[in-house]
Amino acid sequence: MLxxxxxxxSFGNNHVLKGIDFKVNKGExxxxxxxSGSGKTTLLRCISFLERADSGTIDFDEFHxxxxxxxxxxxxxxxxxxxxxxxxxxxxxxxxxLANVMEGLVTARHVTKADAEKRAHExxxxxxxxxxxxxxxxxxxxxxxxxxxxxxxxASNPRVVLFDEPTSALDPELTxxxxxxxxxxxEEGTTMVVVxxxxxxxxxxxxxxxxxxxxxxxxENTAKEFFLHPQKERTRQFxxxxxxxx
Amino acid sequence: xSERVVQIISQSFFQILIPGIKVTIPLTIISFALGLLIALxxxxxxxxxxxxxxxxxxxxxxxxxGTPLLVQLFIVFFGLPSLGIVLDAFPAxxxxxxxxSGAYNAETLRSAILAVPKGQTEAAxxxxxxxxxxxxxxxxxxxFPIAFPPLFNSxxxxxxxxxxxxxxxxxxxFTKAQQIAARTFEPFVLYLEAAAIYLIFCTVxxxxxxxxxxxxxxxxxxxxxxxxxxxxxxAKEEK
Lengths: 246, 239
Fold this sequence. Notes:
heterodimer; B: MetI-like fold; disordered C terminus
């Protein structure tokens, strides 16, 4: 349903993505793993057009665009079908949890206030944040903020939800509550791309794993195969270091 | 203090205070409000990087910050008539103060807008908001509390700057004090009185600022909310 091909991106002389081909099928959960600086986050940001790729193409269901030559309007069309969860939440600081979830529905999609509010309450309930609907982000813990951010991302029922290291800014205790929410979403059949350092999550929840390093995809496999029988030496090294076992 | 001086003080106090209330205060409020609109425009065209308008903003700010307010007043009131533009003293003062404060406040607003974390814009765009919606609904509401204290600074500054309008024949607080001083030959007392009235105005504004800041849910750039009300709400929650 979502496929990018031959994506190149560099910042000055720093070549971050060197011809990435990446694809997600409907209902699939893809975990993107790799060491820091491997280009995982940049890939996600290029897919959502927070960064403009130097070259590459995107096929997203009925949409087909050149990633380097795409209009603002076309970007907007694509984004209306995507959800995005940031590493550091980025909840609107001037809005309550409920208003955060409603914003994209009311302002961007012209859903009536009453319908949006109903939907937002449902979404907050889904992430276990219903009792904090009236709270401002600064009054919530990191884990709570991220759960609201997930509610915001899924409120418009997007075709794919992109997660950019959703638990990296959280302490281990709060990580659990966010991963549980994500696992539930995955079980409901939400199409997800998750850039993460959570090996257990990748192993247990993801269908497919993509391993990146140095701007390239080193290895790609079903989650089970990836963890049981890594093909490449570099992947084995990475798994050994991150999980302490192979 | 002689009886005569006491009498002059008591008589002149209201004579000075009245133009203060009738002229100085409206002059300040109207000029500041117009200046704020100019400032918002100048800040936004710079941040949105609008060609031509951005360059215009830079030149504008360069000019109005780089020349004395008194000289600007003279240009507008005494200079423009030679181009056929004749303005009454009060509107000339309003225009000059608005243009001048617009330049300074543009920088205040620009820095406040830039102080809102970039992630807020990214998140807004990704939920589908347009640039204008993002500014209006997400960024400006967060920039305003950041800009509030320096804007108030500029407002208090303007209260005192309006005394310059006396030099272009606006009969305001200080003009009145000058007139009475010339008549009574008591400049020291009269100017102290004028100073005292300005001080009263500014004290009221200072108290107003404190009160408004407490009312405002104030969010610093790193997203920490400091608000008396919010803290109160938390305390209630704990009980």
